[in-house]
């Protein structure tokens, strides 16, 4: 089983992104993909200071420890005005290659309506450069998020479909994370001459 870090990238406390993060973490544990010590990182409930402000409450060191232990990640961003959230973009300013480099990562876009694709596109384009996070080809987009993943059992066909798709994506994440473990170890043993991406 993997030590999994699930990052809820909304800047709002008690967000729909946090709800989805809790569901995916619990489901990955039920599928015996994630270990019991896997953790949720909620950027809305415990926000990081806007980079490069001083982290006076020492929030980042706690997150840093969780990321060090993580073998794979799920990164969740709601779509706000067609963009990934400031909270998740700010997170990537803190993170680095030692923490995230070559770790298999499932992207999840969230929308209260029929959107949700733009955060996926944006993070694939710009959220990996210096940290070398390893986004897998599969991703999830959870539309009409307020109507799904609310109860133990699905409440509609759409709810059942996204749960089935989530299981599929989690299994793919597990396969990639398992395969990337020796690659990651080999790459991180090298002295990096190129600390930042091109």
From TrEMBL:
<keyword id="KW-0288">FMN</keyword>
<dbReference type="GO" id="GO:0005829">
    <property type="term" value="C:cytosol"/>
</dbReference>
<dbReference type="InterPro" id="IPR050712">
    <property type="entry name" value="NAD(P)H-dep_reductase"/>
</dbReference>
<dbReference type="GO" id="GO:0016655">
    <property type="term" value="F:oxidoreductase activity, acting on NAD(P)H, quinone or similar compound as acceptor"/>
</dbReference>
<keyword id="KW-0285">Flavoprotein</keyword>
<dbReference type="InterPro" id="IPR005025">
    <property type="entry name" value="FMN_Rdtase-like_dom"/>
</dbReference>
<dbReference type="Pfam" id="PF03358">
    <property type="entry name" value="FMN_red"/>
</dbReference>
<dbReference type="InterPro" id="IPR029039">
    <property type="entry name" value="Flavoprotein-like_sf"/>
</dbReference>
<dbReference type="GO" id="GO:0010181">
    <property type="term" value="F:FMN binding"/>
</dbReference>
<protein>
    <submittedName>
        <fullName>NADPH-dependent FMN reductase</fullName>
    </submittedName>
</protein>
<feature type="domain" description="NADPH-dependent FMN reductase-like">
    <location>
        <begin position="3"/>
        <end position="143"/>
    </location>
</feature>
